[in-house]
Amino acid sequence: MNRTGVLLINLGTPDAPTPEAVGRYLREFLMDGYVIDLPKPLRWFFVHVMIVPRRKEQSAKAYQKVQLPKGSPLLVHTRELAANVAARLNTNDNRYAVEYAMRYGNPSIATSLEKLCAQDVARIMVLPLYPQYAESSFETAVVETRRRAAELGCADRVTFLTPFFERPEFIDSFASRVVEHLEKHPAEHVVFSFHSLPERHLTKLNPQHCLRAVDCCAQLSEVNRHCYRAQCLFTAKSIARQAKLKRGAYTVSFQSRLGRAKWLGPNTEDVLKSLAQRGIKRVAVSCPSFVADCLETLEEIAIRGRETFINTGGEELCLIPSLNSHPVWVETICNWIRELGD
Fold first, then answer.
1. CA distances from 15 to 75, 101, 269, 298 (A)
2. Predicted confidence band at 1 (pLDDT cuts at 50, 70, 90)?
3. By the 8 A CB rule, do 187 and 284 touch?
4. pLDDT by residue (tens digit) across 3-48?
5. Rounded Cα distance, 243 and 284, in Å
6. How far lies 232's CA from each of 42, 163, 172, 257, 261, in Å?
7. Contact 7, 99 (CB under 8 A)
8. How far is CA 127 from CA 1, 55, 136, 292, in A?
9. What is the sign of the dihedral through the CA atoms of 295, 297, 303 and 309?
10. 3-state DSSP call for residue 23?
11. What is the spatial distance between Cα 59 and Cα 337, in angstroms, rounded to a whole number?
12. What is the pTM of this model?
């Protein structure tokens, strides 16, 4: 047992861009109590009766718009990342066994963990690919991994990489993508769009602080260090500083709302409309809560967001590519794995 296992975890994607496959994926995703935090009977009703029957057709059409020959973008990019990380780590020997998994969909965490255990690895380093902490992303991935590892009898071999929203290597990697893009496609304004969350997801974790004041997340401190919104704002400010963006040249927003609950804002769609109405003609959008391009970046931003911006008076909106399997990001992941193994 001298080999080390590595498991990269991303959110998930349907097996195919069809209503049936999308429906299966949405039911698994939305029935997670960390995602929709309602009592299970009520959650079942909302998911199976109210949400999935209405959304599976629409979502399937959205997935079809971004589908790649080798699969969905999230799956393709995560698979390529895992392959490149394995190749880089095993340049001089064959010490590392690298697998990837999806919290929802395939390959599942259980399947990928079983593959690693079958190789009799001495330890398993798990990297949930979520920069910022949220129960509906990082926490549920950790809980599911621990549960499956316990079933396989390898729980004592598992170690997790913590959220990396403030790590310089992550900030540098994203900032380099922003700079590289803006050099080729100049823009008047940059929008940093993060996945939104219901406000109650934050307030229930820290009811004495979260969202109690307008500027409660302006500076990262010990009080708000584990707050998703504070982490997002810190990430955006750090990337902007590294990319040498002026203070008024960028805006932070939140996307991908679902349902009628109050979600974190400002909403990305509203921000894009406002920028166009102000006379801004060229906008670039970066999505630093996603380390791989997916439906939320390629369809929601690059297609629908662009249409919204242009229809409101803008001329061009460009999506800044995510980290995907960029060599700098591959090297960063490898360094973190080596560091975690020390």
1. 9, 13, 28, 18
2. low
3. yes
4. 999 999 999 999 999 999 999 999 999 999 999 999 999 999 999 9
5. 13
6. 31, 11, 15, 16, 20
7. yes
8. 21, 30, 16, 14
9. positive
10. helix
11. 35
12. 0.95
Domains and CATH numbers, the chain: 4-163 (3.40.50.1400), 168-319 (3.40.50.1400)
Taking the C-alpha atoms of residue 218 and residue 121, their distance in angstroms, rounded to an integer, is 43
Rounded to whole angstroms, how far apart are CA atoms 37 and 136?
9
Two tokens, residue 140: 């549920």
Q: Give 201: exposed, middle or buried? Use CB within 10 Å, 0-12, 13-18, 19+.
A: buried
154-189 burial: b if 16+ Cβ within 10 Å, else e:
beebbebbebbbebebbbbbbbbbbeebbeeeebbb
What is the per-residue pLDDT across 126-181, written as a single tens digit (0 to 9) for each? 999 999 999 999 999 999 999 999 999 999 999 999 999 999 999 999 999 999 99
Confidence of residue 314 (pLDDT cuts 50, 70, 90): very high
Preceding omega of 266 cis (within 30 degrees of 0): yes
Q: What is the phi/psi pair of residue 283, to 5°?
A: -125, 145
List, in sequence order, the alpha helices (H) in 101-210.
109-118, 140-152, 168-184, 199-203
Query: What residues contact residue 102 under an 8 Å CB cut-off, 6+ apart?
Result: 9, 10, 11, 12, 13, 75, 78, 108, 109
Amino acid at 284: A
Q: Which two tokens stand for residue 249?
A: 């040249």
Q: What letter would DSSP give residue 271?
A: H
